[in-house]
Design goal:
The complex is a heterodimer.
Chain A (H helix, E strand, L loop, with lengths): L1 H5 L2 H21 L8 E7 L7 E8 L8 E7 L11 E8 H10 L1 H4 L7 E5 L6 H6 L10 E7 H7 L2 H8 L6 E8 L5 E10 L2 E4 L2 H4 L3 H7 L4 E5 L4 E11 L15 E10 L8
Parallel strand pairs in A: 2-4
Antiparallel strand pairs in A: 1-2, 1-5, 3-4, 6-7, 6-10, 7-8, 8-9, 8-12, 10-11, 11-12
Chain B lengths: L4 H7 L1 H4 L11 H19 L3 H22 L1 H8 L11 H12 L11 H6 L4 H4 L6 H23 L4
Helix pairs in contact in B: 3-4, 4-6, 4-9
The chains are: A alpha+beta, B mainly alpha.
């Protein structure tokens, strides 16, 4: 129990209170600049005992030509207090920061020191920024795609038509393969859905809200079409207790129970014979 | 042929017999609106009105989440240190984010996926046209089941002081 005794609860509490105050400020900044949408907020150079906290804000929208410094902003602004703690704001555009990061990494180095990402909008960020700030929003090996009912598939008939219809819509299901069967045509794995821009495993309770689950229960055919064009028929679902499955997910299930799906590869024609 | 909206709705016990004790007395008008809209939702589902169900269910998600979060501000304050609902951000997306952030550990079966907002946004024609033509068929069914599940979880979470 030595680890428990070593926990510094007052320091952790101070960090969480400061974080809550910074998040309130960020929530205000999300809608305050017309034409600029907050894309990333990073608390950097973290030092919870300090009266000043450094925040980097990157905005989507028209490019800026510098990192602007806004001086001290009282974090207790909601109560009308002008006193400490303060936020020291550094703000620029996604575009400018990305270019600076590529051209002059030393200048942006301080923004990665003891940094914690407090907010991100992955659709407004570049892949480089997502990697640089170590924003992990999906588990390794995740395949993203869409559910197609048997009626959907009957309308499409070809992968090309199905992909053409689905690619304009963001994927609604994710799959992490746990085992590929010996014939290489079947596999089983964990289903994921996107929650707050992160792909998290479906819970056994959550599974029951989905059409694909009820279609399979009713012995109706259903398919997952994944980005890249792989098509699988859903064979069955099984809810199992498997603590070791937490390594396939960004967050572990509270009770170690996961719904597992079994899939079978389907090889339709790429294009209509006509 | 997928399940009819009527048959799904008949299995949704929390839509048909809502227990709204989680909505506090000072939000009695909100409770009345939820009850009215649930009644209309059941009627629309029984008549297989898919688009109506999608839009009305989206509205209900927003009202139910607002009322629940408003009633549980003390719970969030205990965990976060301070909290107040921002009146300038009265959106389904904001309520969903707050709900998932502070209640997903206590109510894992009620976690709301991001596509709930996409479905509600089918109210905008220029959003709907990007989806496959039968999007309302699926959206209406998943909105019904998810709302039913949410109401069930919230009613078990406890009544506000």
């Amino acid at each position: 129990m030595a680890e428990l005794a070593q926990l510094d609860l007052p320091a952790k509490g101070a960090e969480l209170r400061t974080k809550a105050l910074i998040e309130d400020l960020l929530a205000y900044h999300m809608g305050v600049y017309p034409g600029h949408k907050l894309a990333l907020a990073v608390w950097f150079g973290k030092s919870t005992g300090s009266a000043e906290h450094n925040i980097l804000e990157l905005f989507d929208g028209p490019p800026m030509d510098a990192i602007h410094h806004f001086g001290r902003q009282p974090l207790d602004w909601k109560t009308g207090s002008g006193g400490p703690p303060f936020a020291m704001l550094h703000a620029t555009s996604v575009d400018y920061f990305s270019k600076l990061m590529a051209a002059n990494p030393d200048i942006v180095k301080p923004y990665f020191d003891r940094a914690e990402v407090l907010y991100f909008d992955k659709h407004a960020l570049t892949e480089n920024l997502i990697r640089a700030f170590n924003i992990i929003n999906e588990p390794s090996g995740l395949m993203k795609g869409w559910y197609l009912s048997v009626d959907d598939w009957a309308k499409f008939r070809t992968l090309q038509a199905a992909m053409a219809s689905c690619r304009h819509v963001r994927p609604d299901v994710g799959f992490v393969k746990i085992e590929e069967f010996a014939d290489l045509q079947g596999c089983r794995g964990l289903l994921h859905v996107e929650v707050e821009q992160r792909w998290l495993p479906l819970s056994p309770g959550g599974l029951q809200n989905y059409t694909f689950y009820h279609d399979v229960l009713a012995e109706r055919r259903g398919y997952f079409l994944f980005e890249g064009g792989a098509l699988y028929r859903i064979v069955k679902f099984e809810v199992i207790t498997a603590p070791e499955y937490s390594r396939y997910a960004l967050e572990k299930s509270r009770d170690d129970r996961y719904p597992e799906v079994y899939l079978r590869a389907v090889h339709p024609p790429e294009q209509s014979a006509a | 042929m997928t399940d009819t909206l009527k048959s799904i709705c008949e299995q949704c016990i929390h839509l048909n017999n809502p227990q709204l004790d989680f909505i506090p007395a000072n939000l009695s008008r909100h409770r009345a609106i939820v009850l009215r809209d649930l009644g209309e939702l059941v009627t629309a589902a029984s008549a297989e009105m898919e688009k109506t169900v999608v839009i009305l269910a989206g509205s209900l998600f927003e009202t139910v989440l607002f009322a629940f979060i408003a009633s549980q501000q003390a719970y969030i304050v205990r965990r976060r240190g301070a909290f107040s609902l921002d009146p300038n951000n009265a959106t389904l997306e904001n309520y969903k984010n707050i709900f998932n952030r502070w209640f997903s550990d206590a109510l894992p079966a009620a976690v709301l996926p991001d596509f709930i907002v996409d479905y509600r946004n089918l109210v905008h024609v220029n959003r709907e046209i990007y989806f496959p033509p039968n999007v309302c068929e699926r959206a209406s069914r998943e909105m019904l089941r998810t709302l039913d599940s949410l109401l069930g979880e919230l009613s078990r979470f406890g009544t506000p002081p």
